[in-house]
Design brief:
The protein folds into two domains: about 90 residues, Alpha-helical ferredoxin (Fumarate Reductase Iron-sulfur Protein, Chain B, domain 2); about 260 residues, no CATH class. About 40% of the residues are buried. With about 375 residues, the protein is mainly alpha-helical. The chain contains 19 helices and no strands. It is elongated. It is about 65% helix and about 0% strand. Bound molecules: iron/sulfur cluster (2 copies). One iron/sulfur cluster binds next to helix 6 and helix 7. The site of one iron/sulfur cluster has 15 residues, from helix 6 and helix 7.
Length: about 375
């Protein structure tokens, strides 16, 4: 029989508790949570064992555990736990700590996840865009109008040399940060949870993509069954908005065609459908959280920061367009300014915020499939 020496990390236990897993100590290992969980594999199932690891402060075993990402936070375990130990929330707290642990640079991870830094997170892009406005002379000469005297956001904040010169390097830094984080996460998973086999990695990736596109696992949720539609709406709206951005780049750099585009153009159609889907999806997420707060918990600062940013992106984008079409400049421009601030927050803080769950969960799913831990598609 192999023996394992447990080296408890008491600071880790304290951190789990302060990150949303305050109910951790109530667990008395009855295993009800593992029985009701529809996502766990039969072999070495979760979340009971993770509750034990967390109580014992087994940091390394939890932070690099792919199982914490196989959990889709459906909260069935939390609803049925006889002790009110909220295992779903404890796993959520550990996921947040995994993101904080692997994301680089680490000081940004601490900053993004500290409620006391919330004002600073938004103050940074506000100052950047105010400086852009000052450089262009908007405070002295006013904001120039577009052709025919219309409100034009590309005259207010031109892509070149402002928006794109800020967002393109920012996107490159975000990608680099994710690559560095995921590399060390994968290495730790391989060290602690089995070396990936010779199996075809392409199949693991393809199966993971199919699983994500279909959101099939969400159908196994009972207590929060309506999460699937809400999550699908938000997920596909992000894809729609990414397509919109790609078309905008094509129009601007290849066709030399600046916004605003006609409402009937494909870019506006995809953008508006995606924007509405985003707002509907995120509203459903908020309403589900409030509706199920007694059974599933209301969520932590980490969850709500992401919700606020996504809401901000959708709502300010929609209002900026409506007030531009109504030709009400004194509301349209501030709305567009706020839209840019929220987009900056969404991208710049992605490796450290809940947005990163997309990348970590995808990586963990690929790994779990590759080592034969997760056989579902
Ligand atoms: S978290 Fe709750 S259901 Fe799960 S083992 Fe502990 S006490 Fe039992
Ligand atoms: S939240 Fe859902 S998926 Fe996660 S451990 Fe609990 S029952 Fe399983």
């Amino acid at each position: 029989m192999s023996e394992e020496i447990v080296k408890p990390d008491l600071n880790f236990v304290k951190e789990v508790i302060s990150s949303g897993g305050e109910s951790l100590k109530k667990c008395y290992q009855c295993s009800t949570c593992t029985v009701v969980c529809g996502m766990t594999p039969d072999n070495s199932p979760f979340p009971r064992k993770e509750m034990l690891y967390a109580q014992w402060g087994m940091r390394d075993k939890l932070i690099s555990n792919p199982d914490i990402w196989l959990c889709h936070q459906c909260s069935d375990c939390t609803a049925y736990c006889p002790r009110g130990a909220k295992p779903g929330e404890v796993l959520g707290a550990i996921r947040k700590m995994a993101i904080k642990n692997y994301s680089k640079p680490s000081f940004l991870a601490s900053m993004v996840n500290e409620p006391k830094s919330a004002i600073l997170l938004f103050a940074i892009p506000i100052v950047i865009f105010l400086v852009f406005m000052m450089i262009q002379g908007h405070f002295t000469t006013g904001i120039p109008r577009g052709e025919g005297g219309i409100i034009s956001f590309s005259k207010f904040m031109p892509p070149i040399p402002y928006i794109d010169f800020l967002f393109i390097p920012l996107a490159a830094l975000v990608v680099l940060s994710f690559v560095a984080s995921i590399k060390s996460y994968w290495a730790d998973m391989a060290k602690n949870y089995g070396k990936p086999t010779d199996a075809d990695i392409n199949k693991s990736i393809t199966d993971t993509i199919i699983e994500i596109l279909s959101h099939k696992k969400f159908s196994k949720c009972n207590v929060t069954a309506d999460r699937k539609i809400a999550h699908l709406l938000v997920f596909y709206s992000f894809i729609g908005l990414a397509i919109t951005t790609s078309i905008a780049v094509f129009y601007l750099y290849l066709l030399k065609w600046e916004s605003p585009y006609p409402q009937t153009n494909i870019i506006k159609i995809i953008g508006n459908i995606s924007g509405i889907a985003l707002l509907v999806g995120i509203t459903m997420i908020v309403s589900n959280r409030i509706k199920n707060k007694d059974k599933a918990g209301i969520g932590s600062y980490f969850d709500w920061l992401f919700i606020v940013i996504v809401y901000g992106v959708g709502a300010t984008g929609m209002f900026a367009q409506i007030f531009r079409l109504l030709d009400i400049a004194f509301i349209a421009y501030p709305m567009y300014f706020a839209h840019l601030v929220f987009i900056f927050a969404l991208f710049a803080y992605a490796p450290f915020s809940k947005m990163a769950h997309m990348v970590y969960r995808t990586t963990a799913l690929v790994f779990a499939k590759h080592v034969g831990r997760d056989k579902s598609i």
